[in-house]
What does this fold into?
Amino acid sequence: METARPRIEEHQGEIFYTKTGKPFTYRTNHYTLVIVESQRYVQWHEIRSALEE
It folds into this structure.
């Protein structure tokens, strides 16, 4: 997570695409990563758990 989080934060605001081709962007703050288009919040601890799996 120590190397992943700065890389994730560095790319916020860029356009990414889902598997189905829908564009999305995200922004980060101290506690969460926010998918802008859906206003979905993902906690950093959830990202950490996903990376560990």
Remarks:
- The helical segments are 4-10, 44-52.
